[in-house]
Amino acid sequence: MRGTDASPRLAQTPFVHARRRRRAGLLPVLTTAVGIVLGILLPRIEAGATVPTARAGQVLVQDDPWIWRTYALAVGLFGFSMSAFLAMEGATEVSVALPIFAFAAALAVIGLIWNILTKAFVSLEMDSTLDTLVRSGREAIEALYPERPLPGNSQSQPVAPTGGRPVLWRRPQTTLQQLELRRLLRDAERSGSVAVFRVRVGETLWPGATVAEVSGSLDDDAVVASCVTGVNRTFDQDPLFAFRLLADIGLRAVSPAINDPATAVQVLDAVVGLLLVLAPRDLAVGAINSPSRVTRIHLDLPAWADFVGEGLDELLVASRGSPLVLARAKTTLSRLAKEVPPDRLSDVSSRLREVDDHLPAPRLEPGDGG
Fold first, then answer.
1. Cys-Cys with 315: which of 132, 226, 250, 261 at CB 3.0–4.6 Å?
2. Measured between alpha carbons, how far is residue 229 from residues 29, 137, 171, 365 in Å?
3. Domain end point (choices 12, 27, 44)
4. pLDDT digits (tens, 9 = 90+) for 218-274
5. CA 85, 86, 90, 95: dihedral to nearest 10 degrees?
6. Is 363 within a domain?
7. Is the domain of 246 the same as that of 113?
8. Are 88 and 38 within one domain?
9. What is the pLDDT of residue 370?
10. Is the pLDDT of residue 2 over 60?
11. How far is CA 6 from CA 1, 2, 3, 298, in A?
């Protein structure tokens, strides 16, 4: 029989079905490879419309538990399908519960994926992005700085000892994301040592940089092991991160390429809102005491001036040519000045004076002023 004559009959043979099964097995590998290639190439595209990296990153890697739940359910469904396929090999009948369960699980995965896609599209909206940053920044502030009566000088920080043995970072360049201090505190108490960190959470750890200075016999490896590192900054233990991202969005909004002063005004409101949350809080939390009430660890934490500068300075300079942004800055900073403790007022007043220096004088109509 000639090959051309046999081709219609081959469609019904088991050989074709076997090929389809192999293709089905190769499909996940192929799509994974395509996804990796596109993930590498698409971020390198420079032509056409763009979005801020911070906003794109929120779409790609959202800190949402539903993403991991969806992933877990999808993997579970895949494992169920493969094991059920192998288990019913050679069987002529199976329980109706099998396809019903598979269908229900597939619908659940589709629903969860739809939920994630909806959240991803919403996250591209500026209002949603700003709200997410403000909520994350507020959570970081509330977790780190207690709401308690301020000391006599709200700017004061415990004096950290100097002259200790430097502990160097001997690993590749990375970002300090968090500090895990429970074990380090126990080791410092046991050895009677004091560790003074010289790098803040959120800063870059360069090879050879001094991570901390240690007084006593505390092991260097214990200090390094307390550093949780990664590629990017996170909101955990990094209260300045929200201010940095908000300032970046505001700078892009007032840039000549975008020229969106309305968004810059929203950013100003968000920054001042976070400063209002921070203003009544005690920032002197850098001294970590052991159970014996001896300070064993000193942290390098941002002061009030750092928050004000990070959130406002670059944005105010870039907005000098935008009367709308400057006018809103005067309004919001005037409100902030009424709320801050007296020894934090100077950092706000200096920004107010800067705004007044560059705010255009009101235009006088004919007949005004006598």
1. 250
2. 31, 20, 11, 60
3. 44
4. 999 999 999 999 999 999 899 999 999 999 999 999 999 889 999 999 999 999 999
5. -50
6. no
7. no
8. no
9. 44
10. no
11. 7, 6, 5, 82
Output the pLDDT for position 70.
79
* Same domain as 8, residue 61: no
List the domain range (segments joined by +) for residue 114.
Answer: 51-124
**166-221 pLDDT, tens per residue?**
999 999 999 999 999 999 999 999 999 999 999 999 999 999 999 999 999 999 99
Distance, in Å, from the CA atom of 357 to the CA atom of 353, rounded to the nearest integer, reads 6
* Per-residue pLDDT tens over the stretch 15-58: 334 344 444 455 556 665 666 666 666 666 666 555 555 444 44
* Together in a domain, 207 and 227: yes
Token pair listed for 179: 């500090």
Contacts 24+ apart (CB under 8 A), 69-73: 69/112, 70/109, 70/112, 70/113, 70/115, 70/116, 73/105, 73/108, 73/109, 73/112
Same domain for 1 and 81, yes or no, is no
* HSE, side-chain direction, 13 A CA sphere, residue 344: 29
pTM of the model: 0.69
Does a structural domain hold residue 73? yes
- Show the tokens assigned to 276: 């209002």
Instruction: Give pLDDT tens digits for 88-134.
Output: 777 778 788 878 888 888 888 888 888 777 766 655 567 788 998 99
Q: Are residues 329 and 226 in the same domain?
A: yes
